[in-house]
Design a protein that fits this description.
homodimer; 369 residues; alpha/beta; eight-stranded parallel sheet; three-stranded antiparallel sheet; 15 helices; globular
């Protein structure tokens, strides 16, 4: 068995739960936030900085690594863990969402997705079998099924067809998967239609993957709608397997997801807004780039134990951002990743101590989006 | 006394020497390579990474910090050391070279240099007194006199006039300097004219600064000419004070400078070429960006003990550079700074063991520029 999940505690007021995932590269306590390392690097951070920020697992991306440097080169390097110097667990997504995002550059058929590289226009094909081949060659601990995501808004029939194809593709992925040391997760689709989400959750659950993901959310729909979809989806996903809400990772969405039984989150938000000069805090975003912080000699977030907050002021970080110094992106990325992981750690403790509902209320009382 | 220099050993074959500088923020073994942190950050590196690369002192720049974030803001932050989280020695240059480099945007008079900011065109004035005020407000351990650099090539009379003004400005800097915990270094000018270099060395030496710098070299002149100038300059600078060759830091120039009695070097080369995908090694430059390294799973430099060479391959670093990932700049900067400092450390050992001349010959036998 390449992956095991232990459910350590459930809550009475909400669906929040505390668990532990075991993988060949180590354990992951859940709920967990997974920093994204799209191109085999969490942007602007060394692996040591990612570890020091508390990360137990990182993501990497099949679409990007297939194009550059190529999955076979990564295998020659000894696999993704060794290539990127990250000895802990890794999850790769299948590239489904990325080729879907290419718009006019891709064409979807039952076989798979023909697409042109966003880099050089070269023509390629991703299919369930090809995605499995690439993900197996990369060698992550958790690999994702190749799915068809739909945009928001989309017509019911379009979403239903994509969902049904996603289910057929999930079966093909399951069949194509060969490595015993990797765990394949299925992905629920269904857009913003409750009945489709339910149908998809049942279909994916029935395929008995070691973990189940919820895809196609946080793609532009209003936030209450995302919560509505989670409300009808997670109860239909098996309790004894981890649930992963893909591409979601703002503080508020994490709390809302945990309350609805989600165990795993990932997001590029932390490092993306960092490069733009914005810090994430429990009270909301702080645009450090703003002139108001030019003479603010306090840390990014009072009480934060991250490397950045322990050693630098808002004024210094603002100076770095204003002068386009790389260290600015690094220091804010460190803070944003650390702050998110620390936040999730505190959620774990709240669940363990049977006070998650109160934690959630306190959080929203102070948080400004 | 804010600075003391101990000459620990001299050579018989060359002018190479081994020494130690004491400053209020710690000791510096010489010869020394000083990484450049123009805007109060060594580009793409944290202070811990700079320390781990072996740095004992870093540079910062008066012109840049005066414009952004402003020297008074740095003082409010508790001074430059605290602002940038660097507890070891710092040297600031005076801004003379930077305003000189502004070309049409600056006008030099006896009073000083009127210039327009390269950022917003705003008008400013730097003078010996103003440079001292800024450098004292920043609070580095070693501060540089405000000098007038000349371009290469330049007419004899132009160079002579700039040199004479540099001497008058050096006297004004000395008079304006007030802080006891900072050491002011004078700067020799004289372009590529041996008699002017000698005249300048004598004039600056006579002013009895605690250290003496050689400016206006490595500004485009052929390398043999730089060595010729050093040959006539360093013998006229006091033996019991450190000698600093400004803006020079390639491996070959360091060896040539040490052989001519230089103790201190600084250069932006290490971090600049890193961001462009080039590694510095003892055999010459390695353009990691090149396709030839795409499947090269060896370290940047065989035998190097830096963090990058211990943990990553050329193939991975090339992937990062090709995909414009910030970590690529960081990993190559770490290597380039570490490799240069390790090289200078080996020079120190060679001097101590009376084999610097052989070290120099071996180096040039293997080095390709």
């Amino acid at each position: 068995m390449s992956l095991s999940f232990t459910l350590k505690k459930t809550c009475k007021d909400t669906m929040a739960r505390r668990g532990r995932i075991e993988t060949p590269h180590g354990a992951i306590e859940t709920p967990v936030f997974m920093p994204v390392g799209t191109q085999a690097t969490v942007k602007a951070m060394t692996p040591e900085q990612v570890k020091a920020a508390g990360a137990e697992i990182v993501l990497a991306n099949t679409y990007h690594l297939y194009l550059r440097p190529g999955h076979e080169l990564v295998a020659e390097a000894g696999g993704l863990h060794r290539f990127m110097n990250w000895g802990k667990p890794i999850l790769t997504d299948s590239g489904g969402f990325q080729v879907f995002s290419l718009g006019a550059l891709r064409k979807i058929t039952e076989e798979g997705v023909k697409f042109q590289s966003h880099l050089d226009g070269s023509r390629h094909m991703l299919s369930p079998e090809k995605a499995m081949e690439i993900e197996q060659t990369l060698g992550a601990d958790i690999i994702m099924a190749f799915d068809e995501c739909t945009a928001y808004p989309a017509e019911y029939n379009t979403v239903a067809a994509a969902m049904e194809r996603t289910h057929r593709w999930a079966q093909r992925c399951k069949k194509a998967k060969a490595r015993d040391d990797q765990a394949l997760f299925g992905i629920v689709q269904g857009g913003t239609f409750a009945d489709l989400r339910q149908e998809s959750a049942k279909a994916i659950a029935a395929m008995d993957f070691p973990g189940n993901a919820i895809g196609g959310l946080s793609v532009g729909e209003p936030k209450p709608l995302m919560n509505d979809m989670l409300d009808v989806t997670t109860p239909l996903l098996p309790e004894n397997k981890p649930r992963y809400l893909m591409g979601v990772g703002s503080f508020d969405c994490i709390v809302d997801g945990v309350a609805r039984g989600v165990d795993m989150f990932d997001c590029v938000l932390q490092t993306r807004v960092a490069r733009n000069g914005t810090a994430l805090t429990r009270r909301g975003r702080v645009v450090i780039r703003n002139a108001t912080y030019s003479r603010d000699f306090s840390p990014i977030e009072e009480g934060c134990t991250c490397y950045t907050c322990q050693n630098y002021t808002r004024a210094y970080v603002r100076h770095l951002i204003k002068t386009s110094e790389i260290l600015g992106a690094t220091l804010l990325s460190i803070h944003n990743v650390h702050a998110t992981i620390q936040f999730v750690n505190d959620i774990r403790t709240a669940i363990e101590e049977d006070r998650f509902a109160a934690f959630k209320d306190d959080f929203f009382a102070n948080y400004h989006n």
